[in-house]
Specification:
With 237 residues, this protein is an alpha+beta fold. The chain folds into 2 domains: 153 residues, Rossmann fold (3-Layer(aba) Sandwich); 55 residues, no CATH class. It contains 8 helices and 6 strands. A 6-stranded antiparallel β-sheet has the order 2-1-3-4-5-6. A hairpin with a 7-residue loop joins strand 4 and strand 5.
Length: 237
C-alpha cells in the first residue's frame, strides 16, 4: 500500500493543500517558511496510533480556531496482495449485502483514511472505486475497535517522521541496532530508508549474503541521494 495523495485542512500555516505523490520519492523545494515542513509534518499524522492532534496545530485563520483540530486525509493505492488481505478482513465484519458491493479485484481501488481528531471515533475509512466512494467502512462495521485493531496491525503501512536529526553514524552490532540507544538512531534510519525493514535480516552467518544485502542498501541510498542532491554528484554514501 502506497500513499497516493494527501489533503490537509487547517494545519499550522496551511489552510488547504492537496498533494499528489507520483513516485517512491518526493522532494519539496521552496523558500524558508513556505510550508514544506508543515506538509511533511501533516502527513506524519496519518500515523493514527503514534500521534495526537492538538489545538496548537490549528491554522489561526481557520473558522474553527481556537478550539478545532486540523483535518488530514490520506488516499492509498492498494496492490493486489494488500487488497486481498483487506477484503478478507472486511468480509469478517460486513453484511453480505455490503460485501457484495465491493469488487474482489484491486484494480482501480483506493483506500482513503480521514482524520479530524484523536481516537477511532475521529477516523473514517473508505474504499474508493475509480475515484468515487465505493463503501465507507467506518459506517458499516459494528465492531469497529476490533476491526481497527487488526487493520492497523496487519494492513496499514508504517509512517515515520524524522525531524531535526543529528547525523551521527556509530559502528554497531545487530544487538545495538535492535536496541533503543539513540546513538545508533541515524544508522537505523539510513538502513531502513535503504530497504532494511528488519535488522534481524543482517543476523546471518553467511558473510556473502550480508555483504550483498548491505551493498544493495548502499546502492539504494546513493540512488535516492543523487536524485535529490544535485549540487555534488561525486558524493557517495
Amino acid at each position: 500500500m502506497k500513499l497516493k495523495s494527501v489533503e490537509i485542512y487547517d494545519f499550522k500555516s496551511i489552510s488547504y493543500e492537496k498533494l499528489e505523490i507520483q513516485s517512491n520519492q518526493l522532494c519539496l523545494v521552496g523558500k524558508n517558511e513556505s510550508g514544506k515542513s508543515s506538509i511533511i509534518s501533516a502527513i506524519s499524522y496519518l500515523n493514527i496510533l503514534e500521534t495526537e492532534l492538538d489545538t496548537s496545530l490549528l491554522n489561526k485563520g481557520s473558522e474553527r480556531y481556537p478550539k478545532g483540530l486540523p483535518i488530514i486525509i490520506g488516499t492509498f493505492k492498494l496492490n493486489k496482495s494488500v487488497y486481498s488481505k483487506l477484503y478478507k478482513l472486511v468480509s469478517e465484519y460486513l453484511s453480505k449485502e455490503d460485501l457484495a458491493s465491493l469488487t474482489k479485484q484491486s484494480e482501480n481501488c483506493l483506500l482513503q483514511l480521514k482524520r479530524w481528531g484523536n481516537g477511532i471515533s475521529n477516523v473514517s475509512l473508505s474504499i474508493l472505486s475509480s475515484g468515487k466512494f465505493g463503501l465507507k467502512l467506518s459506517d458499516k462495521i459494528n465492531e469497529l475497535a476490533k476491526f481497527y485493531d487488526s487493520f492497523f496491525k496487519d494492513i496499514y503501512p508504517d509512517i515515520e517522521y524524522f525531524e531535526n536529526e543529528d547525523l551521527l553514524i556509530e559502528p554497531s552490532t545487530i544487538e545495538e541496532l535492535l536496541g533503543t540507544d539513540n546513538k545508533f538512531e541515524t544508522f537505523r534510519k539510513l538502513l531502513f530508508i535503504g530497504g532494511c525493514k528488519d535488522f534481524n535480516d543482517l543476523n546471518n552467518s553467511d558473510i556473502g549474503f550480508v555483504t550483498t544485502y548491505l551493498s544493495n542498501i548502499e546502492t539504494q541510498l546513493n540512488k535516492i541521494f543523487k536524485k535529490h542532491y544535485k549540487q555534488d554528484q561525486s558524493i557517495n554514501i
